[in-house]
What does this fold into?
Amino acid sequence: MKAHLKDAAGLAEDAPVIFSGVEVGKVKSIKLEGGKAVAELLIDDDYEIPGNLKVLVRSKGFLGEKYAELKVAGADSKGLLGNGDTIYESGEITDIDQLGNKLGDIADDVKAITASLRQVLATEQARDNMSTTLTNVREITDSVNKLVQHNEQRIDMIIQNMEKLTGTLSDITVANAANINSIVRNINDITTDLKKNRHLSSPRT
It folds into this structure.
């Protein structure tokens, strides 16, 4: 018999076919027909299975193998599934199955990275180089930490001196505000007098 699938991702040949929690057959093959995934299922003749079914692709746990689950489409069972029948209805993939697919992809990526690291560190020289690099990084980190610790007091003193200088300048400005205002007024008076005298001293035509 055949079953049309909305998504056959992760489903492989020889994957179990489950109905009502019981393994009733195997997936013989998965092909693409007319742009849709179609699985050929081998169902054990010992089982009588309703004819009105839909098929779902499920996974056993997050990273478990995929299997095809047969479920009754509707409230009641109708007829019996026979040789050569085709199941056209396919259920939607569940959130947990989507999460399982993503975790499976992540696991594959981790395996690929691990394999790459094994190749990089395959030789004794490569392992020695990696060890030397890590040692150098640790030494540089320790040096930076010590430098910061040794200069911490100096940095604090510089900050304190800057705060004192700012406070002193502020005090000087406040204390001499009256004198500064007086000087500005005197400059304005002198400038005004100079302008008047220039006009008086200008020759008449």
